[in-house]
Structures are given as structure tokens and as C-alpha cells.
Specification:
This protein is mainly alpha-helical and 498 residues long. It is 80% helix and 0% strand. It has helices at 5-29, 34-52, 59-92, 97-103, 109-130, 136-144, 151-159, 168-181, 185-213, 220-244, 249-266, 270-295, 297-306, 324-339, 342-375, 378-390, 394-409, 413-430, 434-447, 453-463, 469-497. α1 (5-29) runs antiparallel to α2 and α15 packs antiparallel against α20 (453-463).
Length: 498
Amino acid sequence: PQIPPGGRRAMMYLLWSLPALIVIGAIASGRLNTTLAAVLGLLAAIPVAGFAAPGAFGAGALGQALARGLWIGAVITPYILGGLLFWQMAARGGPSAAGAEAANTPADALARRRLLFFACFLVGPFAESATGFGVGMLGTVLLIRPLGFKPRELMIFALLSQTLIPWGAMGSGTLLASAYARVPPAQLALYGMAPVALLMGIWMTLFWFTARRAGLPATLAERGREAAWMLASLALLTAATALLGPETALLAAFGPLIVLRFVLDRRPRRAQLRAAAKGALPYIALIACLVATRLVPALNHGLAGLARFSPYPDLPAWAPFLHAGSWLIGGALLMAAVRRRPGLLADNARHAWRTGRHAVLSVFLFAMMAEVLAGAGISQAYADGLFRALNDWTLLITPLMAGAFGILANSGNAPNSLFMPSQLSLALHAGLSLPAAAALLHVSGTSMGFFSPVRMSIAAGLSHGHGQERTVYAQLLPFALAAFGLLLALALLLVLAG
């Protein structure tokens, strides 16, 4: 007997879901790492796109999609490997540096707890805003590795540096989302501050829970102090966003907070201040250069004019003299030249590759998988079917879908490009706030990247926790469900408010 049209559609949607289901199943099994899971996902996506695409998708289109994925990976890879290499050269220097780090580790439990908060919620987001693409995890791991956490605990603390992603990478994702939504970037970021602040309650709970399990519990008064610092940080970030826009807001807001917190927590003497300044000098110089290349118009235009490669108008371009990855690699080369130790550079480069290879390979593979599914029209067909089925109530589902896409793609760009036009048309039809609807979709896609396999792979590499991803995901599952529940509640509130 013939399958009814509804049954055929259901089977087709199940077939289109196969690559994502394979990736999820491979990771959940605990038997395969993220790289192998991504390989299986890509190998499944190619035949699905070739034989079940909504339109024609031949060998030429497949080659174009794979090339686009390779380009995305090539643009992102310098952030990962360059950040690892710079961190090795600046922070570790050589095998003996670990002892120096341990010597500076606070012995007092309260001081260790405050250093942990400082690294996860101030230094990590600051570094992520300056560079992006998970580099903020480097600064967090650098500061807390001497505290002696287990790899699975260190992985969670590293991921907590990713809680302010709408301002990550100089707010580039928010700038792109504002273009899709036809909303000014500052307005979109300000509307997004509400869901970001509410999600921060979940991330703080995760921090408290993990710190207690790691042997660093805190009194109610200390947790209140941490919450007060977070509220002050978000308030300053809101003001800076309104004044400066999302690109430089977090750097401007968190820079003074980091200095103030360091002075209050450590109460350093003059010699300690000099030592801290000397140790932080490579990072200060790097961030100052990056900020200058973005804030000084003449310098920005001059460096962009030296070289710029943009083979795909809708994908990120590569301007080697502006790319943060180039500055990270250049900084590592400069430190090697100053120290006159080329052997150290080679050793740290090998260590950086061993640490970051899974993350790099995952970026390439997931990018190619996403481009194959998008180029074949499968991603768009998913969105169209969803909107046809649910009409106005799709506004309740799009944050969940955006979050799911954000997890798979490790970026909010895919769900923004896929769902934003329909999200805005539905909000307009229902008489809802367009900036609020756009901001909810954007925050859902970017913030849920916290649980991305790519980001998890980076955290595992930095924490020497490969093979423990399944355990960490099991610990994160209740918080992921809470985050999705919060986003769904906000969507319902948005619909009812209309």
C-alpha cells in the first residue's frame, strides 16, 4: 500500500534528521570522541543530501558546500591553535613553569574559591570578547589549573567562561544577527540582556554545584557576594552596551572590574603588583593591540586594506592583519625571538597541536556537515515545515530549535540566518515586539552553544579530559534542560504579552 503524504513527510523529516541523530548517538554512547562523531555525521549527511534533498544537489553543489565548510574551518582554526600556542609561550614558557604557577596558588580555601570565580566569570569572558571562538577558556584554565581539579571539573569551569557569548569575538555574532533582524546592534544586545541575565542564574547554580563537588564549598554570604559581583558586572555591561555598542562593551566594562577584583582579593604589595604586571604583560599587550586594531578607524582600515580574502560573500572574510589568530601566532613568534629559544617554540607548537587537534578537526567536519545540509536545502525545508505546521505558535518553538542548532553548529549564525526572517514576520503578524523576538532567538542560538560538542572538545583538550565528555554531558544535562525550559518560558511570555 502507498504511504500517505503525511507519512511520507514524516519519513523524509526522519531521514533528514539522520546526520544529527548519528552525531548525538555517537557522543552519547561514550565510545567515540567528538572528532569521530563528526566524521560519521558528515558521512551520513553526504548521501542524505545527495538522494533526499528537496531540490537538485549534484556533485558540483556538494563540492561547493564542502569547500565552504573548509573555508569556515580555515578562518576559525588560527583562533584555536594560535590561542593555544600563545598561551603556552606566555604562561608556561617551558616544562618548569607549572611549578611556578603552583607556587603562586593561594593556600587558603576562600582565596582559592575567589580565584575560581575570578577566572570563570571575569577573565574568561574578557578574553572571549577580545578574541572569540573559545579562546576565553584558555585564560580560565591557565588560572585554575594549579588548583588541582579533576579533568571533568576543569572542563565545566572552562565552559563557564562562555556564558556571555553575545559579546564574544568583539560582538561579531550580534552584529551579524542585527543585520538579519534589521535592528540596531546596540538595541538588539540590550534586549538580549534580559534572557542572558536570567540564564546567568542557571550558570551560577552550575558553578556553585560544581565548586562544592570539587571541594571548594562556600558560605551563603560568599555566594551572595558572588551574586552581587555578577549583578554589578551585568549592570556595567548593560551601560557599556548602550554607550558603545556590543563590539567593545564587555572589554570596557570588565577591564576595570578585573583590576578591582584582583586588588581586593589578593591585596598585593608593590612587588607583587610588579610581578603580576610582568606576568600579564603579554596578554595586556595582545589585548591592547587587538582593541586598537578595532577601535582606531585609520588603523583598522589600513590593516584591512593590506590583505583581505573573501571567496564567499555570506561567510566570514579573512583579513590576516586583523585576524585575532594572526596576532596570537605573531605574539608567540615574537616571544620566541625575544627569548632566543626556537626549540621552545617548536615544542610548544607540537603541544598546541596535540591539545587542539580534536577541536580543529571537529570545527572543519561540523562546518562541512552544516554547509552540506544547508546547501541541499534540508535546513531550510526543516524551517519551512515547522512554520507551516505551527503558524503563530512557532514563536514558542524557535528558541528551542535555535538552541539545538546552536549546539550542533557551535554558533548562533546558522539559526539566525535560518529562522530570523520568519521569526520577525510572525512577530509582526502577531503584533509582538520585533527587537524582543529577535533578541530571544539570537540569545537562544548563541548561549546554548555552551553545550556544543566543538566547545566540549576544546575544553577536554585544555583539561586533558578526552574520553570524559560523556560524564561531563551527564552532569550538564539538568542545566541544559533548565536553560531550554527558561527559553521556552520567555517565548511563552513574549506571545502572551502580545
